[in-house]
């Protein structure tokens, strides 16, 4: 279990992308959300993380 927690911590350490707060409502349909690379993050943006499937 400790190894799983360490892996999760490493994975969640860096956001994969960011989405504008208004676009957070539309992330699931992949049509209207404004998703940007994490390097373009600004204050107030919502961070998205990628979890690898075991």
Topology:
Blueprint: H1 2-11, E1 17-19, E2 35-37, E3 46-48
Antiparallel strand pairs: 1-2, 1-3
Task: Outline the structure in words.
The protein is α+β, with helices and mostly antiparallel strands. It contains 1 helix and 3 strands. The protein has one helix at 2-11, and strands at residues 17-19, 35-37, 46-48. The protein has a 3-stranded antiparallel beta sheet with strand order 2-1-3, with no helix packed on it. The longest helix has 10 residues, at 2-11. The model has no long low-confidence stretch (mean pLDDT 76).
Oligomer: single chain
Which strand order do you get reading across the main beta sheet?
Answer: 2-1-3
**What is the number of strand segments?**
3
Helix and strand string, N-terminal first? HEEE
Shape: elongated
Unreliable segments of 5+ consecutive residues: none
Query: The biggest beta sheet, please?
Result: 3 strands, antiparallel
Structural class category:
alpha+beta
Average predicted local confidence, pLDDT: 76
**What is the CA-based Rg, rounded?**
13 Å
Helix run count: 1
- Cα-to-Cα separation, first versus last residue: 14 Å
Share of helix, binned: 10-25%
Strand content: 15-25%
Which short descriptors sum up this protein?
54 residues; 3-stranded antiparallel beta sheet
The gist of it:
This protein has 54 residues and is of the alpha+beta class.
């Amino acid at each position: 279990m400790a190894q799983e927690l360490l892996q999760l911590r490493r994975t969640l350490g860096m956001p994969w992308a960011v989405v504008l707060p208004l676009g957070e409502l539309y992330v699931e349909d992949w049509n209207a959300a404004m998703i940007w690379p994490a390097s373009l993050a600004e204050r107030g943006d919502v961070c998205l993380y990628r979890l690898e499937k075991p």
